[in-house]
Amino acid sequence: MLDDATLQVMSYAQSSSLFRMGLVQIVVGSAKQANLQRAAAKVAEAAEAGAHLVALPECFNSPYGVKHFPKYAEEVPGGQSCQAMAKMAKENKVGSLNSLKKK
Questions:
Q1: What is the pLDDT of residue 23?
Q2: CATH code of the domain covering residue 84
Q3: Does 25 map to a domain?
Q4: How far apart are the C-alpha atoms of 20 and 73, rounded to whole Å?
Q5: What's residue 1's pLDDT?
Q6: pLDDT band with cut points at 50, 70 and 90 for residue 18
Q7: Which residue segment(s) compose the domain that 33 sits in?
Q8: How many domains does the chain contain in total?
Q9: Burial 33-67 (b: 16+ CB within 10 A, else e)
């Protein structure tokens, strides 16, 4: 399903499966908070679809490219993105798989 923000959530599972994983693909921009909001919406959508674990793309909170890494690097676990992901996982009762650039 592709929405206006060109975000896509894909979930793979067989009907008899005991484990469901949600795969989130999002288009990101330079505004970290907007990226996190889009990710949060898609994590919630995946959880509603029955996902137990939700995987976000590499560089889900920033533009892709090594030139962006210094600007978007954060403390782990205290940084904005890490805290946001922990909150998303807790609120939606899912595990999350994501990567962050660490300071």
A1: 94
A2: 3.30.750
A3: yes
A4: 30
A5: 43
A6: confident
A7: 8-97
A8: 1
A9: eebbebbbbbbbbbbeeebbebbbbebbbbeeeee
